[in-house]
Write a structure and sequence with these properties.
The chain is mainly α and 129 residues long. It has a domain of 31 residues. Helix content is 64%, strand content 0%. The two termini are 35 Å apart.
Length: 129
């Protein structure tokens, strides 16, 4: 991790930026690191009460204080109980091949690029299943 951070800092300085955050922002909508930090601070402040309310509802449903690894399980149970829907039911409407096709089509439209499979390359997950 330290090597990565040092390399990022070196790249940023070589390109005339004070740090990697400024380098990263050069091609993005945000005007400065300060603007990003202000946005994130505002977002955290505005969402804090909703997050506390959601956590309280999950804790109440669980009947005990939640550990970090409990939240995904109880969030799914909460969604099933509150909205009568589950992730498993939603999967039927979003088959992976259709989602991938739509994602690649969007990338083509937005960035004018074409993504194609390359035969003989080791991949993490075979999508042809």
């Amino acid at each position: 991790m330290t090597k990565i951070l040092r390399t990022r800092q070196a790249v940023a300085e070589l390109l005339g930026f004070e740090n990697f955050a400024e380098y990263s922002l050069a091609a993005k909508m945000a005007g400065s690191v300060e603007e990003v930090l202000a946005f994130l601070g505002d977002l955290a402040e505005r969402s804090q009460s909703a997050a506390h309310n959601e956590y309280a509802a999950l804790t109440e449903m669980a009947g005990h204080p939640l550990a970090a690894w409990d939240t995904a399980y109880y969030a799914e149970r909460f969604k099933e109980r509150t909205y009568a829907i589950s992730d498993e039911q939603l999967k039927a409407y979003f088959p992976s091949q259709h989602v991938l096709h739509g994602m690649f089509a969007l990338a083509e439209q937005l960035y004018d690029i074409r993504l194609v499979a390359i035969d003989g390359v080791s991949v993490w997950h075979d999508t042809e299943q």
